Amino acid sequence: MDRFDFFMSEPTVILSASGLQRALARIAHEIAERNDVSTEVVLAGVQRGGVYLAKRLAD
């Protein structure tokens, strides 16, 4: 096995679109439950997917 075979393997789906939606909804509910709804919550996302995730959670 070549040391680069790991990086060239076929992608594996670890979460379906509906599963991702459920996970995001749960995360959003957890954030809301743990924070006072009368205050602003700041969501910061790290580039390379984190910004997209923060925007999805904010919606």
Counting structural domains, the number is 1
Determine the mean pLDDT.
Answer: 79
- Computed structural class: mainly alpha
**Helicity level, as a percent range?**
40-55%
Q: Outline the biggest β-sheet.
A: none
Q: Can you count the beta strands?
A: 0
Low-confidence runs of at least 5 consecutive residues:
none
SSE series:
HH
Mass-distribution shape: elongated
Kindly report how far apart the N and C termini lie.
44 Å
Strand fraction equals: under 5%
> What is the CA-atom radius of gyration, in angstroms?
16 Å
Could you explain the architecture of this structure?
The structure is a single chain. This protein has helices spanning 17-34, 50-58. The chain is mostly helical. The chain has one domain (17-58). It is elongated. The chain starts with 16 loop residues before the first helix and ends with a helix. The mean pLDDT is 79.
